[in-house]
């Protein structure tokens, strides 16, 4: 018996006996044995006929012959009964018997006719459903009907038997997944049964029951279990969606399907299989996986301090949770069935934002994590300090998120700015008597400048006079004058040296300062004060007061026409110039360096002279405020000696 592949129909072949064809024996010259007489000849198998005869004394064997008009088949047997094999089914044969002994063989017995029975049907069996087996066969020669029976292969239970004139038969109401034995034979017009065929066939298994589906949202896999079925060799679990088909195969009663897609609805079914085929699919179980992570996430901060997080809607998403975690570890979240959430934010923070979708299956996979950095905070404790008429120093406390500070002073047309990583700035080259709008902007590389920082107004002070002139009026009195400074209402002039200080307050553009020491270097400071009290300290180059006027001025005759003027030099080094004013002219002399006298020659006698010895300024200017003395130069008497002192005059 040979079977086709499992699950498909298979053919069953009957078992046929062997035949032996013998050559006729040559008769011996001795006396032949007696001729046998056939009692009966009959067929029980489609390829053989059995013959019975009376035993012949002395015979050692018998030769059986079957002829159908076309072929002759002979068979040697030892005794009665004997069987001729290798015959054709449903064929009429002439049967004869010869006895054989040591002396030869007899003549053929009187013939007896016998007909072989019908051939066994060749069966093709299959199980189209778990409770049925289909038996099919080809037509059998000379057959007018068929008998088919079925029973469990283990012998338990009842036997079903059906007669039919067709060439197929279906047995129903069978047990699923059970091995059955099928027998079939044909019969002829006389009702004589032919050979039978035997096959084993298993019914296909029933569909699995009690299916349970467990979904692992983190791993995106489904574990499917069911109650095992009788006669099932293996099981196939299928997960079908609109775009994909996944499956797993097992001999157990549980199986795991991996690589499920998020946001997808699957129909889960289980098939049981054996060598007869597969069961019908079970009623499919619906499985909704977790939704996919929301995409197209956008983050906006408008106005500052308010973060708006929006995303796209996703399939199978029942609601959403947006998480916002700041870089200091604080985390907040919002639940919504919409596609947007709003959060409060603070300046100078980086926020990490993730959005999940949820349904009954669980949480969506983690999508992209977004980060958003808010603008750096604005300095709030700005303290501008005027350090000069054109310079302001500004300091503030560091603020969160700032990598750089931009400080700008704007007067409407002009912008003065400085950039620094330190929380301090000095703005130089500012215009005096100008109102500036000062703003400190914080800057970060990610977000740029925070343009919402507030401004402060400051006015850097009255303008310093463009020019200042210091004039020595007397040895202890000087006059300081200047051009009017814009925005200044009051001026304070200060001359300061190691010997002391002289100060003057005025609303005018000049001031007299006394108690000036001669021959001393002074620092001249002019303070311009506005009506609101803003003060500009205007420092100018140092001023050196003139050398002191000499003391002890005396005149000596050097001959009839010569005069030597002598004096006592004041402290410090100075150059002097001597002038004699008379009615006949002005006579001048200058001493050599380091000397405290000089000579005037060819001076007329008999005249009264006004004599003034004055220090000469570094600029070469001769000072005229030193005391003047009057001397009379006579023409009589000795040509040597002092000149008569007549008195002194005040400096003119």
Global mean pLDDT: 86
Class derived from helix and strand content: mainly beta
Tally of individual helices? 0
Report the top-level CATH class of the largest domain. Mainly Beta
CATH fold description of the largest domain: Immunoglobulin-like
In percent, how helical is the residue content? under 10%
Biggest beta-sheet profile: 5 strands, antiparallel
Count the E strands.
57
Specify Rg, calculated over alpha carbons. 71 Å
- The CATH homologous superfamily of the largest domain is termed Immunoglobulins
Shape: rod-shaped
Distance between the termini: 161 Å
- CATH architecture verdict of the largest domain: Sandwich
Any idea how many domains? 7
The low-confidence parts are 1-7, 15-29, 638-642
Name the beta content range: over 45%
Account of the 3D structure:
This protein is 0% helix and 52% strand. It has 652 residues and is mainly beta. The chain has seven domains: 37-115, Immunoglobulin-like; 123-203, Immunoglobulins (Immunoglobulin-like, Sandwich), CATH 2.60.40.10; 209-288, Immunoglobulin-like, CATH 2.60.40.10; 304-373, Sandwich (Immunoglobulin-like); 383-459, Immunoglobulins (Immunoglobulin-like); 466-545, Immunoglobulins (Immunoglobulin-like), CATH 2.60.40; 551-646, Immunoglobulins (Immunoglobulin-like). It is rod-shaped and about 230 Å long. It starts with 9 loop residues before the first strand and ends with a strand. Keywords: Signal.
Descriptors:
652 residues; mainly beta; Immunoglobulin-like; 7 domains; five-stranded antiparallel beta sheet; 57 strands; 52% strand
